[in-house]
Design goal:
Shape: globular
CATH class: Alpha Beta
Number of helices: 3
Number of strands: 5
Distance between the termini: 20 Å
Mean pLDDT: 94
Structural class: alpha+beta
Radius of gyration: 15 Å
Strand content: 15-25%
Low-confidence stretches: none
Order of helices and strands: HEEEHEEH
Number of domains: 1
Strand order of the largest sheet: 1-2-3-5-4
CATH superfamily: HIT-like
Largest sheet: 5 strands, antiparallel
CATH topology: HIT family, subunit A
């Protein structure tokens, strides 16, 4: 069921990379964190436990597929997974490749900036963003 006041019910939530009837994957517009993806559950659900066991398994399979692509393509220092929903109570998972050179590391992406980069963060990635999106799309296609 859609909720008209929910931004993730109304809008994709970022650059749409892949979608299926139950979920979609977007890349967030976060210049400091270019390899920042979200797995968004299509139906409005506030909590992970609102999903059936089958839907929870399907959702986590997509989260894991995105994480694996980021690890293989970028060799990040760490992958951050989060599902907060404090501001937008629509189930979505953040899958974020983190690097020891990023602006906030080791702080959370929502925490205090630790350094200013002298070049755009996206240029530091081992794989260009369009190629990374294509790899994510390919990895989750079989899960649709």
């Amino acid at each position: 069921m859609e909720h008209p006041d929910c931004p993730l019910c109304r809008d994709p939530g970022g650059l749409l990379v892949a979608s299926a009837p139950r979920w979609r994957v977007i890349r967030a517009a976060e210049p400091d964190f270019p390899a920042f993806y979200r797995v968004i559950w299509q139906d409005h659900a506030a909590e992970f436990s609102d999903l059936s066991p089958t839907d929870r398994e399907a959702c986590m399979a997509v989260v894991i597929a995105v994480e694996q692509v980021l690890r293989q393509a970028l060799t990040p220092t760490k992958i951050n997974l989060a599902t907060l929903g404090n501001v937008v109570p629509h189930l979505h998972w953040h899958v974020i490749a983190r690097f020891d050179w990023d602006s906030h590391f080791p702080n959370p992406v929502w925490g205090e900036r630790r350094q200013t980069l002298d070049t755009e963060a996206a240029t530091r990635l081992a794989v260009a963003l369009p190629e990374l999106d294509a790899r994510v799309r390919e990895a989750v296609a079989a899960l649709a």
